[in-house]
């Protein structure tokens, strides 16, 4: 029962990813990808990682994909007829390189006898947390600093800068029209 | 462990190849390029979790959690950069951003 479920979920993951990367519409691609991530989360659960499965649903499908959706809808990118689409010139090198990578991986894995299926046990929250905060405390600190830096960087990039002033005109003592008076700087609209 | 470890690795390899194809095909669209990177990182996470289940240790799952945190930081920065570039040139075509000159 459980191996069959694994193979069904693997097929769902691969097909959803395949549909996502061949989809012209970015929003549809995101939705396919969320499907793929849900199937992958169930695979994680079956492999004895309930914590990672929960985080996969919460962070990946819940936060990161919604972030993508926000940006796509904010920038109004959901018009595939306006965007440039990959032609046949873009497809064949990618397919060739992907096929080579896949063939190398499959040859490497298939050259060995499949391992004996061992009865696995689920790693619960307790053991996971003990390992995470006991053995890898430094990693937690580094990740927290990295998230802080990402926050600062995103704030810096998202800040609206005022447009640079035009060059000084000739004559008039290099004074711009209106200079010397009280200037009301308007907020620039995008 | 319900299936042989090799089958988990094969699934991870297939997903990684799909992500690589996505990055190479959609290299003119920044959003689809980031999606391809997401798929590749998910394949790496699947390999880590499969290894954790194979040897019965929690270390692989810790690594997959670290990958997840890294991905969220990377995606937030990259999407902020996409918004910034779109504000400058009104496009997400990666070929438009091939110059270092500030225009």
Look at the structure and name the CATH superfamily of the domain at 1-79 in chain A. Answer: NADH-ubiquinone/plastoquinone oxidoreductase chain 6, subunit NuoJ
User: How is the biggest beta sheet of chain B arranged?
Assistant: none
Instruction: Tell me the number of helical segments of chain B per DSSP (H or I, 4 or more residues long).
Output: 3
pLDDT averaged over residues of chain A = 82
CATH topology of chain B: Helix Hairpins
Biggest interface, and residues per chain? A-B, 85 and 71 residues
SS-based structural class of chain B?
A: mainly alpha
Number of strands of chain A: 0
Number of domains of chain B: 1
In round numbers, the mean pLDDT of chain B is 87
Distance between the ends of chain A: 56 Å
Q: What is the approximate shape of chain B?
A: elongated
Low-pLDDT parts of chain A are: none
* Fold-level CATH name of the domain at 1-79 in chain A: Four Helix Bundle (Hemerythrin (Met), subunit A)
What does the radius of gyration of chain A come to? 26 Å
| Chain oligomer state | heterodimer
CA-CA gap between termini of chain B: 56 Å
Strand content of chain B: under 5%
Q: CATH architecture of chain B, please?
A: Orthogonal Bundle
The CATH class label of chain B is Mainly Alpha
Radius of gyration of chain B: 17 Å
Task: Summarize the entry for a quick read.
The complex is a heterodimer of chains A (190) and B (103). Chain A has 190 residues and is mainly α.
């Amino acid at each position: 029962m459980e191996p069959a479920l694994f193979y069904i979920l693997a097929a769902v993951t691969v097909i959803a990813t395949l549909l996502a990367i061949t989809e012209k519409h970015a929003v549809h691609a995101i939705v396919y990808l969320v499907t793929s991530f849900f199937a992958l989360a169930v695979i994680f659960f079956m492999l004895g990682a309930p914590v990672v499965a929960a985080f996969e649903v919460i962070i990946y499908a819940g936060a990161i994909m919604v972030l993508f959706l926000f940006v796509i809808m904010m920038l109004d990118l959901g018009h595939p007829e306006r965007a440039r689409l990959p032609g046949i010139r873009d497809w064949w090198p990618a397919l060739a390189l992907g096929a080579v990578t896949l063939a190398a991986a499959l040859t490497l894995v298939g050259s060995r006898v499949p391992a004996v299926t061992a009865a696995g046990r689920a790693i619960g929250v307790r053991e996971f947390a003990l390992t995470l905060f006991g053995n890898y405390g430094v990693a937690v600190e580094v990740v927290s600093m990295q998230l802080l830096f990402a926050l600062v960087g995103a704030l810096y990039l998202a800040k609206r800068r005022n447009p640079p002033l035009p060059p000084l005109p000739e004559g008039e003592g290099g004074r711009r029209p209106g200079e010397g008076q009280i200037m009301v700087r308007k907020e620039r609209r995008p | 462990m319900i299936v042989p470890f090799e089958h988990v690795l094969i699934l991870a390899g297939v997903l990684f190849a799909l992500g690589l194809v996505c990055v190479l095909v959609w290299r003119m669209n920044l959003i689809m390029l980031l999606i391809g990177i997401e798929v590749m990182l998910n394949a790496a996470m699947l390999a880590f979790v499969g290894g954790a289940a194979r040897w019965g240790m929690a270390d692989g799952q810790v690594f997959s959690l670290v990958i997840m945190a890294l991905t969220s930081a990377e995606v937030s920065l990259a999407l902020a950069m996409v918004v910034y570039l779109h504000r400058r040139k009104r496009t997400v075509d990666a070929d438009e951003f091939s110059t270092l000159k500030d225009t």
